[in-house]
Amino acid sequence: MAVKYTDAQVQRLREYGNVSYEAKLFESIADRDAAFSKEMSEAASANEAGIQQMIGHPARHGLTQIMSDISNALVADGFIEVRTPIIISRDALARMTITEEKPLFKQVFWLDEKRALRPMLATNLYTVMRSLRDHTKGPVKIFEVGSCFRKESHSGMHLEEFTMLNLVDMGPAGDPTETLKRYIDIVMKAAHLPDYNLVHEESDVYKETIDVDINGQEVCSAAVGPHYLDAAHDVHEPWSGAGFGIERLLTIKEKYSTVKKGGASLSYLNGCKIN
Ligand code: ATP
Ligand code: MG
């Protein structure tokens, strides 16, 4: 009778290693437990080697490195980097139609009655985009890379605290969808992930999005305007916008077994388990 690793064994192995342990089959429980000990010890040694490599070669963190690579590529294409507040108002969420009946509303971390930690960057970017528009006749191209917060039921690709990169071009030259695809390509190449698929998805907030997908995993949702959300923000021009999850990009690039290895953490550093 073929036996598999127990859930506890898989979980333990995934903390150190990045192989898919679930599918492995063994002839007996004794064989399995012997394989577990061996695989655990190899994974722990590789992990320790990774820690020694980091100590021996001080470097930027993988997450900030990828943020920096993407940011530089966007600036080179004429985007301005902006920084907006992490604390946002209930009204700002309502302008994104994130009100009590929407699923995303229940995922919001509230600070008090009127203020929350932002679950997305878009609402702030609408405001900045509208302000800058009054200063130029040309397009307004801006992006922000920053922390977002959502209550999540746990999965290998969800963090409650994660980093979004959101770009928007208001008044793009040419067709907004074609422009959007060009920007997606700039970001994906800068992230060293040039092979991806574009898929049409339904969205609670945006109604319809173009998602960037790698092996069935969403790494970005993008949309174009004019859009039904625009009126609430006093925006009326065509636009192209996209939001990427930086930890997901890093996790896929580095083949981490869980997004936790790529995020802000006290347990992991650059994919290595440190505690
Ligand atoms: P999912 O359906 O996978 O939960 P979403 O469609 O709710 O994601 P969006 O609102 O489209 O997410 O956010 C844009 C991008 O931000 C996503 O494509 C993803 O890469 C990233 N992202 C969203 N939520 C999380 C999270 N909890 N942890 C890590 N990254 C996230
Ligand atoms: Mg999405």
Description of the structure:
By secondary structure, this protein is α+β, with helices and mostly antiparallel strands. The chain contains eight helices and eleven strands. It has helices at residues 7-16, 29-56, 62-76, 90-95, 103-106, 122-133, 176-190, 246-254; strands at 80-81, 87-89, 115-117, 140-149, 161-170, 197-203, 207-214, 217-225, 239-245, 268-269, 272-273. The strands form three sheets. It has a seven-stranded mixed beta sheet, with helices on both faces. Strands 2-3 form a two-stranded antiparallel sheet. The protein is elongated and about 70 Å long. Bound molecules: adenosine-5'-triphosphate and magnesium ion. Adenosine-5'-triphosphate binds at residues 120, 150, 152, 158-159, 162, 164, 218-221, 243-245, 247-248, 259.
Supply database-style keywords.
binds magnesium ion, seven-stranded mixed β-sheet, single chain, two-stranded antiparallel ribbon, 275 residues, 8 helices, alpha+beta, binds adenosine-5'-triphosphate
Q: Which of globular, elongated, flat, extended, rod-shaped describes the shape?
A: elongated
**What oligomeric assembly is this protein in?**
single chain
* N-to-C CA distance: 37 Å
Radius of gyration: 21 Å
Helix content: 25-40%
Please state how the strands of the largest beta sheet are arranged side by side: 1-4-5-9-8-7-6
Helices and strands, in N-to-C order? HHHEEHHEHEEHEEEEHEE
Number of helices: 8
Taking pLDDT < 50 over at least 5 consecutive residues as the criterion, the unreliable ranges are none
Number of strands: 11
Instruction: List the ions, cofactors and other small molecules found in this model.
Output: adenosine-5'-triphosphate, magnesium ion
Largest sheet: 7 strands, mixed
Return the average pLDDT rounded to an integer: 95
Class by alpha and beta content = alpha+beta
Strand percentage: 15-25%
